[in-house]
Amino acid sequence: MASSLLSTPSQTLAPAPAAARLRAARPAQVLFPRRSRALRVRASVAIEKETPESEPPPTFLREDGQGAGSGSVRERFESMIRRVQGEVCAALEEADGSGARFVEDVWSRPGGGGGISRVLQDGRVFEKAGVNVSVVYGVMPPDAYRAAKGEAGKNGAAEKPGPVPFFAAGISSVLHPKNPFAPTLHFNYRYFETDAPKDAPGAPRSWWFGGGTDLTPSYVIEEDVKHFHSVQKQACDKFDPSFYPKFKKWCDDYFYIKHRNERRGLGGIFFDDLNNYDQEMLLGFATACADSVLPAYLPIIERRKDTPFNEDHKAWQQLRRGRYVEFNLVYDRGTTFGLKTGGRIESILVSLPLTARWEYDHKPEEGTEEWKLLDACMNPKEWL
Fold first, then answer.
1. Interhelix angle for 279-291 vs 293-304, to 10°?
2. Most buried among 67, 325, 374, 382, by the most CB within 10 A?
3. How many Cβ atoms are within 10 Å of 86's Cβ, its own excluded?
4. Which domain holds residue 263?
5. Is residue 26 assigned to a domain?
6. Membrane-spanning regions, if any (predicted)?
């Protein structure tokens, strides 16, 4: 969740303005960077403060030839993520069945861009569900550029000599159900462009797509995991049969909690910095992946949302949510990017569950259902 648009999973920053938006209509907000000004924020670049809006505008794009009516990739990607946000939120409200509705924050920035944050909390089925979209124009300091590209700490990573102008758009979501047998879901799809920095006007413009959908259950129910992975494979196979095995492994490798020697969950697909295929093809691929979220997840929720559970099951779910928090705050590239560029804090942290738990030196007994989950997180499996 998470999420920033520009990197991998996760979300945006800066607390939503108090003026707000308890509008019972839709969900949460994505994770993205913010526009910058010549102020000093962490690495010499600052950001324009967002302005609360009462209604979502038709578009968050600037009128710069790539906005409304241009047919640009930027325009079509924004249209897609806003459509998916609405569809996912409507489906989750129906699945929750409590009458709870998503609270909505809408914000914009004077120089262009903005977002829609939607969150449902303490429903009947969902403890917390966030579905965010963002469109952001800004300037990244070199270290944020490297974080977005996954190059931080690499030799020779500072290829761009100065602050890098960027455009980012994306949708990010994390869904935490109440029932321990109903898995958490995360998905994030984003499109990113950079321009040449001012002190390197000859540098080439670059673009890439990133994203993925992954499942984080507390218990291994093979029927559910296989269904989830089969839907991911179907979406990938429409474009290239090599995508699913490649992006499945990438997902297992990315969501790795190094200090625990285990994965966050049972995987899915993940890709980033993807620009070595035709741009139109990749736009279609990202769209197909985003459209596969509901068919991959809703059947599982319908099967598991009313499964009986006890206090021990709930305590284990809370321990696994602790792992979720650890990964998002320590390793997630989207969170790192958002923190370095001054994104919306509430949107960035919307991926975190309402509740989590840490116990000293907790180890499930070998052979138990809890141990089976931990084993699968430590030793990724081929589910199909």
1. 20
2. 374
3. 18
4. 36-378
5. no
6. none
Instruction: Judge contact between 324 and 357, C-beta under 8 A.
Output: no
- Residue 203: left if φ>0, alpha if ψ -120 to 50, beta else—which one? beta
- Distance in angstroms (rounded) separating the CA atoms of residues 88 and 94: 10
Looking at residue 198, its pLDDT comes to 64
Domain membership of residue 280 (yes or no) is yes
pTM of the shown model: 0.82
Q: Is residue 31 part of a domain?
A: no
Which residue out of 176, 186, 227, 313 is catalytically annotated? 186
176 is catalytic: no
Is pLDDT of 170 > 90?
Answer: yes
In this structure, is residue 220 part of a structural domain?
yes
What distance in Å separates the CA atoms of residue 197 and residue 200, rounded to the nearest whole number? 5
Q: What is the dihedral of CA 370, 182, 133, 228, to 10 degrees?
A: 80
Assess contact for 337 and 148: CB atoms under 8 A: yes
The pLDDT tens digits of the residues spanning 261-286 come to 999 999 999 999 999 999 999 999 99
